[in-house]
């Protein structure tokens, strides 16, 4: 399958001039002396080497400003490198940032013809494919309006419709999909899948961990213009998230650790050919479960909620809420399917009756995903004396989709007027669930559904 590289990048660097004052740009133009420079250089990409094999789908991840778009633009030829080389073998269709590719004064129809011609299609070929492109974009009469009157969603629809209907050998997508609505995104992902299956090479930038894990054979991590790591999507995404959530004073050390692991070196064509001979093996590595990848749950210092709400305490104090493994190791990045314990202490500061405790897991958007209480109210602990400490443990299996979640904790006690919170904390801790590529379940919670499909005779 991977007989020859579709994209070869060697020692690629890109520096942009940065002018501290607007008129310095003009000065540079009129007085570009060899001694005096009116700008300083900003190195957006530093000595990147990379091979993308034919038929491979590679995801690029990295923090904002790490150089992802610059790399894609250099590969597509819309930017020229300061040094280094890019070689592309095959017809390339790109969906770069909004604004690239279409002429705003021309209508959608005219732009389709122009764009497809730039991509190497003859007039007759474009005419043949036009109906399909128009149907995929689904923008109605706007197809005959100037593109400058389009919403960003319409623009992406049309740009994507062209890019994927010209039978590209190499498809490059830069996060553009995040602009479209969910229905359109799904349609696009289905199409990208079909393009992949037809043997094309796909290179795309995404901030979505699950998209990279779901779609890619391999991923690369860029940071400050450097290629820090390449490997299986799960390993790269998990390292990327570690970097993303690291406290500022830990970032340099984490970067150094990633670089020391030496996974940033180029996967040479030769190595790719070896992989090719063992095609299914490569697939196995990409499809391996997180456990098989040797990734374990771990503690990430920077994963601290900034949305915590503390309710008024009325004789009890929740202390040290955290997640841990069954062997007691503190963790906040979890492996899906594994069992963990959410635990906290309750320091009781006055005698309380009918005490019970609770927990809740909430999604990033605040949806209550699941929770529990330690007992029904009739079975609550009848009396807890002042100075006593309760140890509360909720053991649970992590059946959640990849993503970020928040934890609540609460202590209830009985009063004359009924049961009330004596301490309650919203978003007191947060955790992340690692991506899992073989997940058939959709939505937040894995219901252990056994799916079946058959052709009815
Ligand atoms: N034309 C330019 N002139 C000066 N600096 C630029 C230019 N284009 C990009 N940069 C800088 O180069 C760096 C890399 O930019 P790039 O857009 O490639 O990052 P990115 O990883 O795609 O970021 P994001 O995730 O925010 O889209 C950034 O610091 C950016 O400010």
Automatic annotation (TrEMBL):
Ranges that cross the membrane: none
Record domain ABC transporter: where: 7-249
Pfam families: ABC_tran, Wzt_C
Keyword Cell membrane: no
GO-annotated molecular function: ABC-type transporter activity; ATP binding; ATP hydrolysis activity
GO cellular component, one term: membrane
Name this polypeptide is given: ABC transporter ATP-binding protein
Source organism superkingdom: Bacteria
Presence of keyword Transport: yes
Gene3D superfamilies, alphabetized: abc- transporter (atp binding component) like domain, P-loop containing nucleotide triphosphate hydrolases
Family, similarity comment: Belongs to the ABC transporter superfamily.
Keywords: ATP-binding, Nucleotide-binding, Transport
Entries under PANTHER family matching the protein: TEICHOIC ACIDS EXPORT ATP-BINDING PROTEIN TAGH
InterPro entries with a match to the protein in the record: AAA+_ATPase, ABC_transporter-like_ATP-bd, ABC_transpr_TagH-like, Bact_Polysacc_Export_ATP-bd, P-loop_NTPase, Wzt_C
């Amino acid at each position: 399958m991977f007989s020859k590289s579709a994209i070869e990048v060697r020692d690629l660097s890109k520096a942009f001039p940065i002018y501290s004052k607007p008129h310095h740009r003009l000065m540079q133009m009129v007085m570009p002396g060899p001694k005096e420079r009116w700008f300083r250089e900003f190195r957006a990409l530093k000595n990147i080497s990379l091979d993308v094999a034919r038929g491979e789908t590679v995801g690029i991840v990295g923090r904002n400003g790490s150089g992802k778009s610059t790399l894609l633009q250099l590969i597509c030829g819309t930017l020229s490198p300061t040094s280094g080389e890019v070689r592309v073998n095959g017809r390339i269709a790109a969906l770069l940032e909004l604004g690239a590719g279409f002429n705003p004064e021309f209508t959608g129809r005219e732009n389709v013809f122009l764009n497809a011609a730039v991509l190497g299609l003859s007039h007759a070929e474009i005419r043949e494919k036009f109906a399909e492109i128009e149907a995929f974009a689904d923008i109605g009469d706007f197809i005959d309006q100037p593109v400058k009157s389009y919403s960003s969603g319409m623009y992406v629809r049309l740009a994507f419709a062209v890019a994927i209907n010209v039978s590209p050998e190499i498809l490059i997508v830069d996060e553009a999909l995040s602009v479209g609505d969910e229905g359109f995104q799904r349609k696009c992902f289905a199409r990208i899948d079909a393009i992949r299956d037809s043997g094309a090479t796909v290179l795309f930038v995404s901030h979505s961990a699950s998209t990279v894990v779901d779609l890619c054979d391999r991923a690369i991590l860029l940071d400050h213009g450097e290629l820090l790591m390449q490997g299986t999507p799960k390993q790269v995404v998990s390292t990327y998230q570690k970097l993303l959530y690291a406290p500022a004073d830990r970032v340099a050390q984490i970067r150094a650790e990633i670089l020391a692991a030496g996974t940033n070196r180029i996967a040479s064509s030769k190595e790719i050919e070896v992989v090719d001979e063992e095609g299914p093996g490569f697939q196995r590595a990409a499809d391996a479960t997180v456990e098989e990848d040797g990734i374990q749950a771990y503690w990430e210092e920077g994963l601290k909620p900034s949305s915590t709400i503390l309710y008024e305490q009325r004789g009890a104090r929740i202390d040290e809420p955290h997640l841990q493994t069954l062997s007691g190791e503190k963790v906040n990045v979890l492996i899906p399917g594994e069992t963990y314990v959410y635990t906290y202490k309750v320091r009781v500061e006055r005698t309380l009756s009918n005490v019970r405790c609770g927990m809740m897991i909430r999604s990033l958007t605040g949806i209550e995903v699941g929770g529990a209480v330690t007992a029904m109210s009739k079975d609550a602990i009848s009396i807890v004396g002042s100075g006593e400490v309760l140890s509360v443990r909720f053991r649970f299996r992590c059946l959640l989709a990849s993503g970020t979640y928040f934890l609540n904790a609460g202590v209830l006690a009985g009063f004359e007027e009924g049961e009330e919170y004596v301490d309650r904390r919203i978003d007191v801790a947060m955790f992340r669930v690692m991506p899992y590529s073989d997940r058939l379940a959709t939505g937040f919670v894995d219901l252990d559904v056994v799916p079946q499909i058959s052709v009815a005779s």
